[in-house]
Write a structure and sequence with these properties.
Length: 175
């Protein structure tokens, strides 16, 4: 059974690598708590530095996240009351039908040989050996988003990026 562990991270000094992130945070926050369930491999992915970074992101974006959730609730009430969605006019004078996005980068234009899949070791190895030009690691739809699966998936993606990923099942071995 996994242990529930609470990690408390003190606010770092302004001399850290993330000093710009820390300068943007509210000055009244002196420490934060980050909670997670201990899982084999957690320490490999959630190093003290990465936890500090996550706490910093949380402190920086939490007020805006809450504001956006409140806006979403109000907007949903509007829809629930019969309101209809509309295109927001940004005041640039363009008609809604005239809006364009820039072309996709060259590397993303040929999507004929792309594969998306779960982040377990065997599936990542199979995808990388498939001949596809692109592999998209799917941490949402094709992976049950349990804490263990997310931590294992991060380890697997890291190992694949380092070209050290292997898989052994019984007598079969893959890399």
């Amino acid at each position: 059974m996994a242990d529930h562990r609470i990690v408390s991270v003190e606010r770092p000094s302004q001399s850290d690598n993330c000093s710009e992130l820390h300068r943007q945070r509210d000055s009244h926050v002196s420490s934060s708590t980050f909670e997670f369930v201990e899982h084999e491999g957690t320490a490999e992915i959630l190093t003290p530095e990465s936890i500090e970074f996550l706490v910093g992101l949380h402190q920086l974006f939490e007020p805006r996240r809450r504001e956006l959730l409140e806006q979403r609730t109000r907007r949903q009430s509007y829809f629930d009351g019969g309101g209809r969605p509309s295109l927001v006019d940004k005041g640039d004078g363009d008609a809604p039908g005239d809006r364009m996005v820039p072309p996709a980068p060259k590397d993303l234009r040929d999507r004929r040989f792309e594969i998306t899949g779960p982040v377990d070791r065997k599936m990542i190895i199979n995808a990388l050996n498939s001949g596809a030009k692109v592999f998209m690691a799917d941490f949402e739809d094709s992976t049950a988003p349990t804490w263990g699966n997310i931590v294992d998936g991060q380890i697997n993606v890291r190992d694949a990026a380092r070209r050290t990923i292997t898989f052994e099942a019984g007598a079969a071995s893959t890399s």
